[in-house]
Amino acid sequence: MFQFVSLIVIIALAGLDQFIKYSVTNYIETHGTKDFLFGLFRLTYVKNTGAAFSSFSGNTVILSAVTSVIIVACLIYLMMRKSHSIIADISLILVISGGIGNMIDRVSNGFVVDFIEPLFVNFAVFNVADCFITVGAFMLAGYELFSGLKKSKSASGNGRGDEDAR
Predict the structure, then answer these.
(1) How many Å apart are CA 69 and CA 88, to the nearest integer?
(2) What is the pLDDT of residue 64?
């Protein structure tokens, strides 16, 4: 049951990403750029042939291959885990969903549609899938770090060290 629900959520989030990209692209084509969220962001259509911050631009095939491997690895890890942590599961679902959303763009367009431009800081234009990937990756890293610390602390006698074992 868990795997089925996870797959439905992944499909829904990747679909949401594609719907937003489609809607924004059509809006910008007819209305031009538009500031939103109290002028902190602007809808700006960008064709990104690279990865984060346009790195590896023009390497769509290589980026697609790497993305595919990461998606498959995350799916296997998500589906094969014996114990489930809601934080780790949500993290993996976000990374997979974002990866699929951007992969759809790369395969169908030859580029990823980016459209969220922060105006309060000089930063790259990004999209919803990028947000999923970033939030998921940071959540997973934090989870792994803190669960590792927790295991280390419990293995050393609740953090007391060897001198208290006497």
Answers:
(1) 19
(2) 87
Distance CA 142, CA 89 (A): 13
Quote the crossing angle between the two packed helices 2-31 and 60-80, to the nearest 10°. Answer: 150
Of residues 157, 163, 8, the one with CA closest to residue 96: 8
For residues 18 and 93, is the Cβ–Cβ distance under 8 A? Answer: no
DSSP 15: H
- The C-alpha angle with vertex 138 and arms to 135 and 39, in degrees rounded to 5, equals 40
Backbone angles phi, psi at 23, to 5 degrees: -65, -45
Number of residues assigned to the chain: 166
pTM for the predicted model, two decimal places: 0.84
**Could you tell me if 90 and 127 are in contact, meaning their C-beta atoms sit under 8 angstroms apart?**
no
The residues carrying an active-site annotation are 114, 130
- pLDDT tens, residue by residue, 61-83: 888 899 999 999 999 989 887 77
- Side by side, which strands form the sheet with 41-48? 34-36, 41-48, 112-118
Q: How confident is the model at residue 54 (pLDDT cuts 50, 70, 90)?
A: low
What does the pLDDT look like over 142-164, one tens digit per residue?
A: 998 988 767 767 777 655 544 44
Query: How far apart (Å, rounded) are the C-alpha atoms in residues 94 and 25?
Result: 23
